[in-house]
Amino acid sequence: VRSAPRLSAASMSVVEHVREMASAGLHSNVRLLSGLLLTMSGNNPELFSPSQKYQLLVYHADSLFHDKEYRNAVSKYTMALQQKKALSKTSKVRPSTGNAASTPQSQCLPSEIEVKYKMAECYTMLKQDKDAIAILDGIPSRQRTPKINMMLANLYKKAGQERSSVTSYKEVLRQCPLALDAILGLLSLSVKGAEVASMTINIIQSIPNLDWLSVWIKAYAFVHTGDNTRAINTICSLEKKSLLRDNVDLLGSLADLYFRAGDNKNSILKFEQAQMLDPYLIKGMDVYGYLLAREGRLEDVENLGCRLFNISDQHAEPWVVSGCHSFYSKRYSRALYLGAKAIQLNSNSVQALLLKGAALRNMGRVQEAIIHFREAIRLAPCRLDCYEGLIECYLASNSIREAMVMANNVYKTLGANAQTLTLLATVCLEDPVTQEKAKTLLDKALTQRPDYIKAVVKKAELLSREQKYEDGIALLRNALANQSDCVLHRILGDFLVAVNEYQEAMDQYSIALSLDPNDQKSLEGMQKMEKEESPTDATQEEDVDDMEGSGEEGDLEGSDSEAAQWADQEQWFGMQ
């Protein structure tokens, strides 16, 4: 006959059950049972041993972490560490008795280092990065696991402690030489590609089918130095290899690089390829939505936003896409809210910062906008659109000197390409003294890239000031030979009006509106032409209206169409 178990044996069995449930992922069950057992322990301190209390506190904290109650979890983890400290002191004072039951118990104790890592995760979720760094810094270097070093590296980088970040990333690579995100982290901190590649050379040589890795490192080294052309060429060479063809990450990187290089057509094409391969793709879709919105494809932006929200509303990208829809519908307050929501979800979202900055600028809150564009520049120093947003703010507040200093810095930092030349020319156009310099810069930009839309637009603006309409028409026809763009068609319409080519001007406005039905300037150009029609034509039209009564019907149809369009948009915003 078995004798009744003693209380201590029964207590051990309860803790083991909690541990088994935790291992099985039964977090809600662990939370309930451990909470009750901890209350029992509080009412009777002798009920559980110090090691048992430590285990119960850790398992209870883990269940709180799983329920996203991070502050409560930190509190319980802190209590657990205090209990572990007391346990360590007791062990030193009282040597082991050799009891067989104590051995497995000590072996099953949750790792103190793992507890500290979980605490750091809680602090990052609470946006208390300094506390996260402090808790991880307290772990001796030799005891830091790869995931601890990776978290420390990212936290150091975010805090601007670049040297410490580089050291931690290198430690991750020493332990795990195929940690590709750590490689990207080092490249983003200006560590030379050759140095990074040297840290992976042994693994490349020892494992078959890894010869692509050195090229991959080279490609992203170009990305992080802002050499978009060589980065595109290198990634294209990787993407063409049969083993890496149709890789979604490479296609996404190519799309982003084309966007940075100002080649929006190819950028959209690569984004479309990527999302066809992966319908649940979220990364980069904020840039894709922005490009679609810029082209006036608001219906496509709406559909993209709905699709992304169905995938996840806990990422910044769906909110940014919806914000782009609002921004290009001239609903700046809503765009501001959506941008702020995106930043709340991901404070490192460059596109969210740009969206919020642009909304603030258009609402007249320029100084607040400047703060957001500066933060975007800090996060993405090689992205020209971040500098463009800041320079537009300076120009909006008549700070031409600050704009000129910034444009010159960008020109020197990112090199003399079509984009930086055009940006500098844009600032020069604001000052009558530097008009000739603007002309020279734009000519250089167009020599490099005759199809670069921003350069064409600025050159056309300069020719319009000089009333050289024929030259402007030739420039615009040449730019439109291999591409179709709403703004270029509209400006061509304006130039044709200036030389009395009314019918073709009307055609150009129509094309512009077909590309972007919301382009107000094209609509105004068209309406202006209709008002300036000859009296004879106007009389004939009035006669036809009297006979057929078609004029009023036409107006009503237009009103219905416009009302339907706004009704659709109201429905979309109502859904949000």
Automatic annotation (TrEMBL):
Give the quaternary structure: V-shaped homodimer. The mammalian APC/C is composed at least of 14 distinct subunits ANAPC1, ANAPC2, CDC27/APC3, ANAPC4, ANAPC5, CDC16/APC6, ANAPC7, CDC23/APC8, ANAPC10, ANAPC11, CDC26/APC12, ANAPC13, ANAPC15 and ANAPC16 that assemble into a complex of at least 19 chains with a combined molecular mass of around 1.2 MDa; APC/C interacts with FZR1 and FBXO5.
Q: Which family does it belong to?
A: Belongs to the APC7 family.
Source species, domain of life? Eukaryota
Q: Basic and acidic residues bias: where?
A: 524-534
Organism of this sequence? Grus americana
Q: Which Pfam families match?
A: TPR_16 (PF13432), TPR_8 (PF13181)
Gene encoding this polypeptide?
Anapc7
Q: Read off the InterPro entries from this record.
A: TPR-like_helical_dom_sf (IPR011990), TPR_rpt (IPR019734)
Name of protein = Anaphase-promoting complex subunit 7
Cited function: Component of the anaphase promoting complex/cyclosome (APC/C), a cell cycle-regulated E3 ubiquitin ligase that controls progression through mitosis and the G1 phase of the cell cycle. The APC/C complex acts by mediating ubiquitination and subsequent degradation of target proteins: it mainly mediates the formation of 'Lys-11'-linked polyubiquitin chains and, to a lower extent, the formation of 'Lys-48'- and 'Lys-63'-linked polyubiquitin chains. The APC/C complex catalyzes assembly of branched 'Lys-11'-/'Lys-48'-linked branched ubiquitin chains on target proteins.
Q: Where in the cell is it found?
A: Cytoplasm, Cytoskeleton, Spindle; Nucleus
Q: Which PROSITE patterns match?
A: TPR
In residue numbers, the region (Disordered) covers 524-576
In this chain the TPR repeats are located at 350-383, 486-519
Q: Where is the composition biased (Acidic residues)?
A: 539-560
